[in-house]
Every structure is written in structure tokens, then in C-alpha cells.
Amino acid sequence: MSHLVSVAQLIHLQRAEEHGTGPAVRLLDVRWRLDRPEGRPEYLAAHLPGAVYVDLEHELARRGEPAEGRHPLPETDDLQRAARGWGLDDGDTVVAYDDNRSVPAARLWWLLRRFGVDVRVLDGGIRAWAGEGMPLERGDVLPDPGGITFAGDAAGVILLDQVEAFRDRGVLLDARTPEQYSGAQTATDPVGGHIPGAVNLPAMATVTGDGRLQHPDALRRIFATAGVDAGTEVAVYCGSGVASMHTVLALEQSGIRALVYPGSWSQWSNTRGQPVAVGILPDGRLTKV
């Protein structure tokens, strides 16, 4: 099953719901970016009709210590409570979108699908919708509370103390920019560089100029340059665990299963004694946090 929907496919799903031949379709607006983490003003100004705003910082992450990273995963009960607040019920089809090349929407996709939710990402986001001449609405949408119940085992992660063993058997992808990977740019982290042995493949390498994900054939070629194919064990990290989930979306859209290291560099670089590689090569010049 594709993890994406196009504008035309979303309209088809909505019409099936209207005619009683398909499940309820719930739209979730996950607008967020590093330089403007509060996306509600943009949401209130214009959003897809019926879409409910999702606050990534407070609903798709939890407040934690620096040693946990900047965006620790939310507790399951808290995420389920938030999902009910978005009006979700069991059996709904959820479509998430944003205005940032589907990066924040992919975090919602990754979190919900772990619990058996039928969740997709609108390819191209709100810009693709508006570009097709489809209507937008203003203001807030306050749905009736839903009754969704999460199922599943919340798998799909590796933790800090599992990263070293994983590197010995699979490919660890670093989805940050080359400048962050090499250590030339430290951003908000205490040290720059990357996890030794990690291969750099920026998340935006999988996206076209209009914000859509590359075709699966192109994605497979892109991942092959990093030594990843359908038979490879692969895990992904980024700065704080958001962009890495977009890379997992791209991997799974191309038929490759992947894990996420959710603490990512923001956890690794805040944990004293962890090895750090500096430079453009996977093993680089070694130092420690």
C-alpha cells in the first residue's frame, strides 16, 4: 500500500466517504518548521476544509531532558489522547499534510502507523491542493472527540545504547545536511559531526522541486548510492527525530523497511562519552562528546 495520496486520490477517498462506500477521512494539518515551530497562525489563515491542527511540539513530542534529545517520542497514552482530541475513531483513514515538503506530516504518519492507524501523507501538501484550484477555509476546526484505541507494539526504533551494535550489521543513515554531518555547522547542538560509521543522505535528496516525494524508482536509485537496498538493514537519524521519519517514509515508499533512532543527534551530542566523527567521511576524525 502506498503511504502517500495525491490530491486526486484524496478527493476520491472523500467522495467514497460521502457516498457511504468508504471510511471516514480525517485531515490533519501538521504545519511546523525549525524556524517557526508554531504553525497555528498559518493554519488559521488557510487550511484544507475540515482539517484539524496538530501541534508537533506539544502533541507529537514531549518535554524531556537534553539527554533525551529535542523531540522525545510522546507517551502512548498522551498520543492516543491527542488523537481522540483530533476527532479520530477506529477505522478512520487519516491524511496528514503540511507546507514543509511533508517533513512534519511524516512524523505524524510514522507515529500513528505504529499503532495500526490507516494514515497517509498528502504528497505535495497544501501547496499541491491549492495548486489544483481546490478550496481552502479559514478559522479553527474543533471536532467532536473521537474514540480511537491504539493497537500494536510501538516497534520501529533503535535506542542510544543499540546504535553501536546496529552499525555492525546494517547501514545507519544521517538525514541532516552535509554541513551538519561534517561538523561545519553545529546549529543548536553542543558539538558538531556525526555518529561514526553513519552515511550522509540528506532528507531533501528524496524530494522534487515542488515538494513531492520522488518516484519509487528514483528513490531506490538514491538510496542505492548510500549502500541501501531492499535487503539492507537500515536505521535513520537526523537532528532531533523529525526529518529522519520523512526519510523512513521515502524508504518505505520505495519498498525498504527502516528503523528510526528517535533521539538522533540532539541526544547523541548531549550524552557524555559518545564517539563523534568529524568530516565528510563516515569514520572521519574521531573525538568524543
TrEMBL record:
One of its GO terms (molecular function) is transferase activity. The keyword tRNA-binding does not apply. Its EC number is 2.8.1.-. It is an enzyme of class 2 (transferase). SUPFAM superfamilies: Rhodanese/Cell cycle control phosphatase. Keywords: Repeat, Transferase. It comes from the Bacteria. Residues 21-138, 166-277 form the Rhodanese domain. This is Sulfurtransferase.
